[in-house]
Amino acid sequence: MTQTLTPGDQTAALRDAGPRLARGLLAAGGVLLTVALTFLGLLAITFVIGRVVPIDPVLAVVGDRASRETYDAVRLAMGLDDPLLVQFARYVGAVVQGDLGQSVATGRAVASDLARVFPATLEMATIGILIGVVVGVPMGVLAAARQGTWVDQVIRVVGLAGYAIPAFWLGLVGLVLFYAKLRWVGGPGRIDLFLDGMVPVRTGLLLVDSLIAGNWAALRSAASHIVLPATILGFFSLAYIARMTRSFMLEQLGQEYITTARVKGVPERVVIWRHAFRPIRVQLVTVIGLSYAGLLEGSVMIETVFSWPGIGNYLTTALLNADMNAVLGATLVIGAVFIGINKGSDLLYRLLDPRART
How does this protein lie in the membrane (predicted)? Predict the structure, then answer.
């Protein structure tokens, strides 16, 4: 039966909607202000780094054989003789407009270079975090449910190995064993050389672009090249996720309501997954978000070992070439990714936990 609102009820509803809308706008404004201030702080840090490192940006442009007149002219053109506050204001204005400067090594705009290399890192890190979540969360739950048994000990050793084994060593061993010896996976790079450039770039994600183009040979090649580095990243991710999941689960399994559920005869599977696991989902959101951001930022070694054309490899090359515009641009993008993932995790946290909305 349909209930018709009276004019008084409609007036009350409109009167309550105003404060709710105001609170929503205020909360959104607070989030935007926090993001803006955090990003401004990130800009300040990158600006200071660019000024304190013992690398002369002018020499990177003109070379060490340039005359003093050329050096002074380029320095003046770059605005390095202006006060630091003026330089910082100019830097902020350029970044806001998407101008990260020119790369000395590639001769292209840094923003264009980053747009080209970042999807490669994003693709590999995304597969890595999926492996970490799909494998790490059940491992952590199982370790907590079997606390003190050999299963728990094995999972804890795996987690410890994820912290102790250097990424470059594991990458080299993986290449020698699975590529050079067994030939199970592709070698360094994103795709076989004879297929490079055969897939039209639409998203920058080679697996997705190959699928869209219907190029199955390229899809198989890209999958064989990404499986090993992504799995290694996933191993480091699952070690952290499994460890944190185990810790959260042990805390929940020690609560009185879990004991009550077991006394009532609730099946152990229901006790673990419905009663104990459900409350820790909110905590896992933050853990997974931080792990994902860490994979995007910390894949430098893996990209170097596998010659992966991502942002980590780009940053390493820029450092070796003293290309400060590229270094600062890559650092800025990585920092922005951290900010975005943290805010996204916070939003998801609020959606999953109604208590956080207050």
Answer: Multi-pass membrane protein
